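Continuing from the previous page...

OK, I double-checked the sequence for N-methylhydantoinase A against my notes and this is the correct one:
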Amino acid sequence: MRYRLGVDVGGTFTDILLIDQDTGRSFRAKTPSTPHDQSVGVLSGIEQVCSQAGVALPEIAQVLHGTTVATNAILEGRGARVGLVTTQGFRQVLQIARSFVPGGLAGWIIWPKPEPLAALEDTVEAVERVAADGSVVTPLDEDDLRAKLRRLKGVEALAVSLINSYAFDGHERRIAAIAAEELPGVPVSVSSAVLPEMREYERTITTVANAYVQPYVARYIDNIDELTDGQLYILRSDGGLASAPAAAGGPVNLLLSGPAGGVAGATWVAEQAGFPDFLTFDMGGTSTDVALVQNLQPRIGRETTVGDLTVRSASVDVRTVGAGGGSVAHVPELTRALRVGPQSAGAEPGPAAYGKGGTDPTVTDANVVLGYLPTNLAGGAISLDRERAHAAVRKVADAMGLPSAEAAAQGIVDIVNENMFGALRLVSVQQGFDPRDFALVAFGGAGPLHANALGRLTGSWPVIIPPSPGVLCAYGDATTCLRDEAARTHIRRFSQLTDAGLSELLAELAETASASLAEQGVPAADHTVGYQVDVRYHGQGFEIPIAIDPGMGLEALGKAFDAEHERLFSFLLSNERELVSARASVSGPRPNVRPVTLAAGTEDASAAATGTHEVWMDGGWAEATVYDRAALLAGNLVAGPAIVVEMDSTTLVLPGHAALVHESGSLLIRPMEA
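Thanks. Re-ran it with the corrected sequence; updated structure tokens here:
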């Protein structure tokens, strides 16, 4: 069995990529997502791609899946009814939460505080107490706990989060054992396993979130596992893979599974093209995800945010805006100013051009009106109706008093580009990085259409359009590796630490994470270990994650922390530095997927041209050459205005720019003078 299958479920489309590990040849399928049951769209796509490749399901060795199931359960409020066990006196930990309100000045007046994921009536207190050093102050009263757990009949999942359990987990483990007797069949999440770190609220909300989505994710994984005969792996939020049982046990680590696949795929593509520093720009039908990658290493954050929920879970630092091909354009009566998104037409009914009953003007409709999109998408699976698109966009023109639908469509495209430019600034400029020092990898079904314009706004060159950009997230799923991590809170001032003590702590964490990966079938000889510590100045209320080598001493660590603190905040303190937490991340080997190398050609790309097409640019119609991407050779130069078409996406090259075909198959778009 030599095939790997990458599966990515988005809000509008489900992408399938089948890779022959020996030859590197790939087969693609793109089907509409099925929000009522995502597994239906997944199965349909798998059947399509297997039929196309002439491959039977038993020939697939591994199925690698990036999913939004956990994310959707949070956003749609469709998780389990969760019971919560806290230490006596901490029953209202979720209600007290943190005193942070999103929005601007006086935002608390209009912000509806979300309901906790575990209701107060489903929360019970355990008579017990553990000190910060792990010593038992009050033993666990088991008889009292049993009586309280019996009152939780009806909960579908249980979370256990006791104060200071990161220092001693004995009480939590005992409560889990008692719950298995009193609440048989109810899955239990314990905070000392989910997040063995300090800060009671963050640890509790993360554990409750894990319990909230666990039954839902477990059922979904079981359904997919039954559909496929190969080994099933799920993409984690940090870009690594987890086995199906590990993913079902820790679903809080899957909240950004979908976007992480795109970053993993972009890293693979950028490495082949020779650009280690780049921004990622993933524009789908519903939203756009952006991230920053430096030296082929995505920035990993310690928090994951989905809607109003923020949990402590490692994830690729991805920012999302409600800007996609299905984003709806509207003109509010009060302001008469054009707005685009965050509302989306989604997969059902979709843009007006899809002919499925949608009548609202969307970004896709605007691109159709401007002539940027061909009449067929997804290899002919979706036909576009230009008349419906024109009628929808005309509503915006009439509402704003514009002379034509083309002028309104240009306004829609310009606004959505600015929205996405704002997201790219969040991960670059606002993090202390100049976007002009980075390339821009654009993918997703709609990304290549807007990529050249985003490159012009950011100054990020070249703009890299990967092969099969519409299914790159699935490609990322299929080209990443298994990963797990172990963490521990260990609060010590640097004067209380030694270099040897720090190395010993990291070695213990690496051993724990390696054992977890070995249980998932990866031998120790194939493990790659990375380390990270959280450091702060003594007295600070927050810490900064710092990557560290096992041989790095405290002096070098202090200098690295000072440099990062100054980059983020432009000042340093004279306070003593303090270690807060440490973690080790262990990865398995990357899969044996060979990159494809294109045949060499000259700059002349005319052999791949299929004709010309009228496009609206700079206030008037212009003639653009249309190219078949499958016929392009390495070294071909595609000068704008041009449209490059393929099965899963369409690339627009603007006037004054040109796309060079790299031997790895990527298009490298730069201004003509470059």
